[in-house]
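Hello again, I could really use a second opinion on something today. For a while now I've been wondering how a particular protein folds. Please have a think about how the structure follows from the sequence. Here's the protein in full, and shout if anything looks odd to you:

***
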Amino acid sequence: MHSTLKASAALALLISHTPAYAQEAFDLGEITLFSNQILTELSRSGTTTEVVTEDEIADAPETSVSDILATLPGVTTTATGGVGAQTTLRIRGLGAGYVPVYLDGIDISDPASTGAGYNWGGLTTGGLSRIEVLKGGQSARFGVNAAGGVVNLSSYRPTKDGFSGQSAVEFGAYGTKSASLGLGFMDERTEVGFSLSKFETDGFSATSSGTEADGYEATRANLFVKYELTETARVGAALLYIDSAGAFDEFGGDGSAPYDETNENQTLGVRVFGEFDTGAVTHEISASYFDIDRVSYATHWSGSPLVATEFDGKRKTIGYKATYQENENKLWTFGLDHMAEETATASADINSAYAEVAYAASDKLDLTGSLRYDDHSDLGGQATGRLAAAYRFSDDVILRAQAATGYKPPSLFQSTTNAANSTVALAPEENTTFELGLEKTYGEAGFVRATAFYNDLENHLIYEGTCSTPTNLLTPGYCYAQSNFKSKGLELSGAYSLNDTWQLTGAYTYTNAYRPTGRAGRVPRHDLHVGVSGDFANGFAGGLGVNYVADRFDRDNGSTPMPDFKTVNAHVSYQFNDSTQAYLRVENLFDEDYEVVNGFNTSDRAIFFGVRASF
C-alpha cells in the first residue's frame, strides 16, 4: 500500500489515461472508480461502496441486474411483474428518484418519469462489465437527485492487447431467449469496446389475478472509445442505444381483450470528453445528451378505446473539471457543470460549481471533503457537502465514516402536476446522511464489514390523491404533499474462502424506515442473502444463493402487511476449455409462491441454459 496520497493520486491519473492493462504494473488493491472525483483505492475511500465485477455478473444465477443488486447489503428492489415491468431499486430505504444511474458516464435516469428516477425493469446483464453502488448522500459529488446514493454501470471493455471479444446465448423458461456480443480492441494508445445484447421473453401475467402473459423484448447497444492523442491529451466518447417494448397489466387484472396494454421505449445517450495535462493540473471537458422517448398504450377502463400517452424526456450536460496536486499529500478538484432537462410540458436548467479535496493526513488516515452549489432556474440556489474519512488501524482493519447532505428538486412531472392541481409550491427535498463502518479483512481468505447508517429526509414528496376532483379518468386530479422520511439501520456483510475452491458469502440489512404517520411501505425491516459457490471437479462449478425478506408493508403508514418470503437461486457450469463454458441456472429453485408488490406476480421455478465464450 502506498503511504502518501501522491502515489495513489498519480497512479489514479495514470490509470485513467492509459488502457486497463496498465493496472497490472501496480499493486493498488481494488479500485473504486466513482466514490471520489478521482480513482481511489477502496481502502482509502470513506464512502461505503459495493463493487460487482464482470465475473460476478456472468456467474450470477439471476437474469435482471436489479436482482443481482438486491443481494447486496442496503439494497432492495420491488417489481410489478417479470422482466420489463416497473422495477424500483432502493438504497437504505430511499427509492429511484434519490439514486441516479450512470452508464459509461451518461446519466440514464428518466427525466420524464414521475420522480425522475431510473426504471430497472428491463436491464439485463448482457454487455455489462462492472457495477458500483455508492451509498449515502452523494449530491456534493454527483449533483441533484443523488440524495440517497448512486449506481454506476460500465459496458464491455477489452482486457488485453489486440482484438478480443466475448459472446453468450441463453434459452429458458417463459420462452426466454437472449444473446450478447462484445468486441474490443486495445493497444498502447487506443481502447475500444462495443457490445450488443438482445433479450426476448413471453413472460407471465404481471398481476396475480391475471392469466395472459406479459412479454418483453429489448435490444441494447453500447460503444466506448478512448484515444491518446499525445502523452498529455486524450479524447473519448460513449454511445448508448436501447429499443424495447413490453406488455403490462392494468390495475386489478389483465384489463379487457385483446390485452394490448404496452410500453414502448427508445433511448439514445451520447457522451464525449477530452482530457488535457498542463503540468500539475489535469483538465477534463465533457458534454452529454440523453433522450428517452416512451409511449404507453392503455385502455384506462374496461371498454374504453386504446389511448397512447407519450413521455419524452431530454437531458443535456456540459462539464469542466480540473484536478490539481498541491503537494504529495493533497489533491484538489474543481469543476463547473450545466444541465438542462426538458419534457413536452416543462423544462429546467441547473448551473453548478463544486470543489473537492483529498488529503492524506498520515499513512493511516485519508480525508475527503466535497462542496457543491447548484443554482436551479426555478428554485434558486442550494449547497450540499460531504465529509468522508478512512482510517486504517492496521493493514487489515479499516474504519470508514461519512456525513453528507443531499438535494433533490421536484421532478418536472411533479412540478407541472402540482401546479395544475394545487396552489401550494413544492420545496426541494433535503437529506442528511451519516454512516459509520468497520471492516476486517483476512488476507486472501475474505472479509467482514458492519456499517450503521441514518437518513433524515425533509420535505419528502408524497402523492396526494384528493387535491381536486378529476373531470374524467384521463385527467387525474392529484398533487403532492410534503412530509419527512427517516431511515436507520445496520448492514452486515462478508465473504470467506472455506478452502481453495469454495467460498461463502453473506449480507444482512436491518432497516427501520418510517414517516410521521408510521412505517414506510416496501422497505423490509429484515433482508438476508447467503450464498455458497465453488468448483466441484473436472471442470464443473456452481453455487447456491438464499434470499430471505421479512417484516414489510406494501403501503405507507404500516398498512397492507406482506408475508415473509424466501427464495433460492442456483447455477452450475462446465468449463470446456479456457474460452468456452456452458451453464444451467435456476431461479426460485423451490417454486416459492410470493409477492414483492401486493397483487403482482413473481416468477415460478424457472430454468435457463446458456453458453458463453471469449476470444
